[in-house]
Design goal:
Layout lengths: L4 E6 L6 H14 L6 E6 L5 H8 L5 E4 L16 H4 L5 E4 L2 H5 L5 H13 L3 E6 L3 H5 L3 H12 L11 E5 L13 H19 L1 H5 L1 E4 L8 H5 L6 E4 L6 H14 L2
Parallel strand pairs: 1-2, 1-8, 2-3, 3-4, 4-5, 5-6, 6-7
Helix pairs in contact: 1-2, 1-11, 5-7, 7-8
Length: 254
């Protein structure tokens, strides 16, 4: 099945307003070189609207790094997906830092996915194992557990707005990427799980790889048949590197 590749940049808790604007301008200026690829950036919450404005008509989508599970109410400091409608198009859920630093459970992540999709936005569900879990042979069990909980409440009518990002925790921000074969093996397993669960609709869901993706390894990663692009961390904070990764995705084709 033909699936358009996605290259998305997670800026995490980086950039001030001027830096975010400048980065958005630079990405918008070079986005046209990444043909046949969907591009997105996930800036910190305060800069989302400014980044959206600077991206203008470049076609680069804007996402939020997090959300809460309720539509509204007395939840000081939280952001509802419904509040983000018209502001951005996508929301991350289940990034390893939310799971392992902020202590979010698989079930809570699943509620975020459901809330995001119900609000009409695209949910990017992140899954991935710790180093010890991979070394013990439990990586696939961990990832499928996260998928099961993360998608427990999903309405099948919303699957066209679902993206999965496989991010082995031991490769995030470490400079040590999974090998292309490792990435392909897990992304293929995720796709198999999705098709078992959702039939043909599951095969259409795009599965990204994230974890120390760079311009040097992007081409080889993206040439694997079940790797539909990347969720990029550190390299997304440099426009040249991010755009080079996006061009590599486009060169592979769809």
């Amino acid at each position: 099945m033909t699936r358009t590749k996605i290259v998305a940049g997670n800026w995490k808790m980086n950039t001030n307003l001027d830096e975010a604007r400048a980065l958005a301008v630079a990405i918008a200026g070079g986005a046209g070189a990444a043909r046949g690829v969907d591009l997105a950036v996930f800036p910190p919450f305060p800069w989302i609207a400014s980044v959206r404005d600077e991206l203008g008509g470049s076609g680069v989508q804007v996402g939020a790094q997090n959300c809460y599970i309720q539509k509204s109410g007395a939840f000081t400091g939280e952001i509802s997906p419904w509040s983000l409608v018209g502001v951005c198009q996508m929301i991350l859920a289940g990034h390893s830092e939310r799971r392992h630093v902020m202590g979010e459970s698989d079930e809570f992540v699943g509620q975020k996915v459901d809330a995001t999709l119900t609000a009409g936005l695209t949910s990017v569900l992140c899954v991935g194992e710790l180093l010890g879990e991979r070394q013990s042979g439990a990586a696939l069990d961990v990832v499928t557990r996260q998928l099961g909980a993360g998608l427990a409440g999903v309405d099948t009518g919303h699957l066209d707005r679902l993206v999965i990002a496989y991010e082995p925790v031991w490769a995030i921000g470490t400079g040590v990427a999974a090998t292309p074969d490792d990435a392909q093996e897990m992304c293929e397993a995720i796709r198999r799980w999705m098709t078992d669960r959702f039939d043909e609709a599951g095969d259409a869901i795009r599965v990204l790889y994230g974890g120390s993706v760079t311009p040097d390894n992007a081409d080889e990663l993206f040439r694997r048949p079940d790797v539909d692009g990347g969720l990029i961390g550190g390299a997304s904070l440099k426009a040249d590197a991010f755009l080079a990764i996006a061009v590599a995705a486009g060169a592979v084709g769809v």
